[in-house]
From TrEMBL:
Source species of the chain: Anopheles coluzzii
Mode of membrane association: Multi-pass membrane protein
Name of the protein in its database record: G-protein coupled receptors family 2 profile 2 domain-containing protein
Compartmental location: Membrane
Transmembrane segments annotated in the record for this chain: 473-497, 517-544, 565-584, 590-612
GO cellular component, one term: membrane
Length: 641
């Protein structure tokens, strides 16, 4: 409304300057497209303001009968010349008949909500989604706009809410998201591509849950450490499976929400395990042929702790997906919060005297200095989605993988700035399904697409059914790496041991010659180099043919990573051995010098690429060195020095 009033005032003022020498053309905002009027005229619609690249529906209820969508209008332009609407669809496109459910959701979206009706609105919205076949794209859009209006209501009623009411809020929001995952795929894609619906829905529900999680009333509810099943018609029924003080869990058919206070429970994560009788083949069939009956009924949950053993977790044969925040990340939050806190020391009171002004002492008592705002209460929110139907890109409605599980980790008040990475642990499917790993970004992509999958710098840990590695891995690797060359040497020694003796008295070096040189040394090395060369070409081919939808951003970082990998493989392919082979049968010293110069560098290259340039390894060794430097001073500290 403020933008609209400013726009009208500027337009009226500039129009008054029209003369023979000055002609007023118009006023454009560089960020918003503003409505022409806030009054409904015959044959016209009233439009909401739209950001650049955004499509909006009108303020009035105007649906297209064929698609079940509201009429839309898109804001075009750029930040240089300003924004402008594309076209103005009139009310002649509107159908005269509206479903009662659609009318109800529309009224909720345009009406100012308050605390007295909030519970009824959320309950009614969940009931409308109970029959997926009757939901049209407009229903999903007006539902998302309704949820977008809920957080301000929660701010006004943060205190004094009974536990039953808080539980009802959590269950209603969880039920709404769970039932969205049952909707027809065409309905969801149509609504998302036209009006960015699912992105609004996800952002709104996350904001609601975060707002409820940090409230004082929720902390009192978390101290009981209970779990609630929101699928029961009688409400959220308490389930005493295993009490964990400082946690509360809400479970629906296709959505699980855990809220934990690490300072009380030491719980910072959640893992989902499939039932023993649910095989990987069954999961693969469900991924290809998703049925409405599929839900979390065949899965069990387990809380994860900040000092959780990664090896024990990945060794679980039934692990489906899980995530937890490691202890060093939790410990680094206070330091991170202090680093990003901006003190108000630079802001001075305009009425305060200048530093050069001399003032007399005053008996008036000075107020206490302002206290820095306390860090937000630490809450860890883990959300597991049964499928990715709600994560649709605006442009083409793509998803990561059919029926794939999605896990969300949130720390309200800390944003996306973390001291370190928060890993996700999953188990790859038995069949060769697209196993892409990505994270959902709410940011705009090229100023035209809000909400999209990003696959850059995403590393998803997978554990196979055989465990982390084959049994006796070191022993088998030793036998293969040392046993193969030893077998070749033993064979030639048994045939002619003189092949490994000195050929003359000019040198004390024993080096194979004859058949031992050609077939026992050069041929195996040449075979290995050839196989590595083929592998190198195949890797480069796959890097150069990555689909464009997997490289939406951070192309520069990806190019640098590919370049580092290419150089690394170049050294691993055996460049020194190529120089060594070229010294055979010639008296030239060039390749001999090149061999001596490049062979010792291999170990250094391995150290640089696996330790120095790897963030995880670098942080690990930095912590080790820092710990070792602190430990010698510990006895002195205990003695008071």
């Amino acid at each position: 409304l403020d933008h609209y009033q400013t726009y009208k005032s500027l337009t009226a003022g500039l129009e008054s300057l029209n003369s023979e020498r000055v002609r007023f053309l118009g006023v454009n905002s560089t960020e918003y497209c503003l409505p022409e009027s806030l009054h409904l005229a015959p044959g016209k619609n009233i439009w909401w303001p739209a950001r650049l690249g955004e499509s909006v529906a009108p303020r009035n209820l105007c649906l297209i009968e064929q698609s079940g969508l509201p009429v839309t209008r898109r804001c075009l332009g750029d930040y240089l010349y300003g924004c402008a609407w594309d076209w103005n669809p009139g009310s002649e496109l509107c159908t005269g008949q509206h479903r009662p459910t659609t009318s109800a959701l529309y009224q909720y979206s345009v009406t100012s909500l308050n605390h007295s009706v909030l519970g009824e609105v959320l309950t009614r919205a969940g009931e409308i989604l109970a029959v997926p076949e009757q939901v049209i794209p407009a229903d999903l859009f007006y539902l998302s706009k309704t949820l977008e209006n809920v957080p301000p209501v929660l701010e006004q009623s943060e205190t004094g809410s009974p536990d039953e009411e808080r539980r009802a809020y959590f269950c209603n929001v969880s039920t709404i998201l769970s039932r969205v995952m049952y909707l027809n795929e065409t309905t969801v894609v149509l609504s998302q591509r036209a009006l960015n619906t699912t992105n609004i829905l996800l952002d709104a529900t996350e904001t609601i849950v975060n707002r409820l999680a940090v409230a004082n009333d929720t902390r009192a509810m978390m101290l009981a450490g209970d779990q609630y099943d929101c699928r029961d018609r009688g409400g959220a029924i308490q389930r005493h499976v295993q009490r964990h003080d400082g946690t509360v869990l809400f479970r629906t058919a296709r959505l699980i929400v855990l809220i934990a206070d690490p300072t009380v429970a030491n719980v910072t994560g959640l893992a989902l395990f499939r039932a023993r009788n649910l095989s990987l083949e069954d999961l693969s069939d469900a991924a290809e042929n998703s049925e409405s009956e599929e839900d979390f009924s065949g899965y069990t949950l387990r809380y994860l702790y900040m000092n959780q053993s990664l090896e024990d977790l990945l060794a679980e044969s039934d692990l489906e997906i899980g995530s937890f925040i490691p202890q060093h990340v939790i410990e680094g939050l206070d330091e991170l919060n202090t680093a990003f806190r901006t003190p108000d020391d630079e802001e001075q009171d305009p009425d305060a005297p200048d530093e050069s002004t001399t003032t007399l002492p005053s008996p008036v008592e000075h107020p206490d200095p302002p206290v820095s705002p306390a860090p937000p209460p630490l809450r860890v929110i883990i959300t597991i989605y049964y499928n990715d139907h709600a994560f649709r890109e605006t442009k083409n409605g793509t998803i990561a993988r059919p029926n794939s599980k999605i896990i969300s980790v949130s720390l309200p008040g800390y944003g996306s700035r973390m001291p370190d990475e928060i890993p996700i642990y999953t188990r790859e499917m038995a069949r060769e399904l697209p196993s892409r790993c990505g994270y959902w970004s709410f940011e705009a992509d090229n100023a035209t697409e809000f909400g999209h999958w990003s696959y850059d710098e995403c590393r998803l840990l997978n554990a196979s059914d055989r465990g982390l590695r084959p049994a006796h891995f070191i022993l088998k690797a030793t036998v293969c790496c040392w046993g193969g060359p030893l077998l070749i040497v033993a064979l030639f020694l048994s045939l002619d041991y003189t092949l490994y003796l000195k050929r003359d008295n000019l040198s004390d070096i024993c080096y194979p010659h004859g058949r031992a040189l050609w077939y026992g040394l050069l041929l195996p090395i040449g075979t290995i180099i050839f196989v590595n060369l083929v592998s190198f070409v195949i890797v480069l081919y796959h890097i150069c043919t990555i689909p464009s939808n997997l490289t939406k951003s951070a192309d520069h970082a990806m190019t640098l990573a590919q370049l580092r990998l290419s150089v690394f493989l170049f050294f691993l392919l055996g460049l020194p051995w190529i120089f060594g082979m070229l010294t055979t049968g010639t008296e030239e010293k060039l390749f001999a010098y090149l061999f001596c110069l490049t062979a010792p560098v291999q170990g250094f290259v391995l150290f640089v690429y696996f330790v120095v340039m790897d963030p995880s390894a670098r942080r690990f060794w930095c912590r080790k060195v820092a710990t070792a430097a602190v430990l010698p001073g510990a006895p002195h500290q205990r003695r008071g020095r």
